[in-house]
Amino acid sequence: AVVSTQSAITAGNKVIEEISAKTQQHIERENLFSGNNYHSLPVVLQRGKGVFVWDVDNKKYYDFLSAFSAVNQGHCHPVIAQVMMEQVQTLTLTSRAFHCHNLGEYAEFVTN
Q1: How far apart are CA 100 and CA 112, in angstroms?
Q2: In the sheet that 60-62 helps form, which strands lie side by side, from edge to edge?
Q3: Of 19, 21, 50, 53, which residue is the least packed, with the fewest Cβ within 10 Å?
Q4: What burial letters (b/e) apply to 50-82, b meaning 16+ CB within 10 Å?
Q5: Residue 67 and residue 87: Cα distance in Å, rounded?
Q6: How many CA atoms lie within 13 A of 84 on its CB side?
Q7: Among positive and negative, which fits the CA dihedral 47, 49, 53, 55?
Q8: If pLDDT is split at 50, 70 and 90, which confidence band does 56 have?
Q9: What pLDDT is attached to residue 109?
Q10: Distance separating alpha carbons of residues 3 and 10, to the nearest angstrom
Q11: Mean pLDDT on 28-45
Q12: Are 51 and 14 in contact (CB under 8 A)?
């Protein structure tokens, strides 16, 4: 199994890759000031396009996780980005504690 530590990515007892100081700084700041819901991999992503993401050290990766299927269409798709910009000018997000005027219509569409 591949395991992450604070200073390296290891598989068993073998160090696969050392973590840069820049990556380490981002991880430490996130751990200090945010909730620790997951044991994240020691990779700090900065941007994405299509199936690729880049970390703060400009290393390129395939995004095989796709935000656990929330981004399976790829990063920064131009049509989706345009529709998102139009939507956020009307209503950004509704909590699931409320109903949304078009959720039923969308749910019907994706299930048929």
Answers
A1: 20
A2: 45-49, 52-55, 60-62
A3: 21
A4: eeebebeeeeeeebeebeeeebeeebeeeeeee
A5: 21
A6: 8
A7: negative
A8: very high
A9: 92
A10: 5
A11: 83
A12: no
Q: What is the DSSP letter of 20?
A: P
Q: Compute how many other C-beta atoms are within 10 angstroms of the C-beta atom of residue 44.
A: 19
Q: Residue 52 to residues 18, 80, 101: CA-CA distances in angstroms?
A: 21, 17, 34
Chain segment 57-110, per-residue pLDDT in tens: 999 999 888 767 677 788 999 999 999 999 999 888 877 777 778 888 888 998
User: What's the rounded Cα separation, in Å, for the pair 76 and 51?
Assistant: 10
Alpha carbon separation from 91 to 71, 83, 101, 103, 110 (Å, rounded): 20, 12, 11, 13, 21
Please write the tens of the pLDDT for every residue from 60-74: 999 888 767 677 788
Q: Return the structure tokens found at 50.
A: 């299509």
Amino acid at 27: I
Residues 6+ apart with CB under 8 A from 10: 2, 3, 4, 16
